[in-house]
Amino acid sequence: MAGEAVERLGYVGLGMTMLALAPEFLMPFAGFLANQSQLNLLGVIIAGTVGGTLGSTILYLIARRVGERRVRRFFQRRGRFLLLRESDLDTVLDVYDQHGEILVLAGRFVPTVRSLVSLPAGLLPMPFPRFFLFTLAGTGLWCAVLAVGGYLMGAQWRLLESWLGFYGATVFSLILLAIGLFALQRVKEAVLGSEK
């Protein structure tokens, strides 16, 4: 369906679908369309970059609007239901405070993380021009790699898509494993704490 939107609506369809969908699924196909002379490769990269950057910017602005105080209040009142403590928020914000620019830039290459890095950037907040610059650079570079890959592979672009699917699934599995280990540790601490 997203591929049809890109095929029918061209650059506008690509930019719109990039607001919500991962570039790993769209950009190789758009690169293939450029290979077939249905789209221009530079136009594909620009449209993907604009859509991806806009999607990340929306998340940043939402986090900035909500603010750290409300998020902190959520952690205090309901965090325990998610096995989260206020100190976890402090840890995330501290790490982000030290390495924020690198996370915003490099996070664009990692499924799931790509969306999440916009939230602490908005909470701290990272100054908007800096956030925008690093998001634009990271998103643009990743979109270019994917589009050029689809362009060079031509009709074999689905091979790139299957490799990227494996890459995304691996990263997602590692994130789920880390969350599982974190939850297990918290349950263990709660059980041991209640026995004392």
Automatic annotation (TrEMBL):
It is found in: Cell membrane. GO terms for cellular component: plasma membrane. Its main location: membrane. Residues 25-151 form the VTT domain. The chain crosses the membrane at residues 12-33, 39-63, 131-152, 164-184. It is a multi-pass membrane protein. Keywords: Cell membrane, Membrane, Transmembrane, Transmembrane helix. It comes from the Bacteria. It holds the Pfam family VTT_dom. This is SNARE associated Golgi protein. It comes from Thioalkalivibrio sulfidiphilus (strain HL-EbGR7).
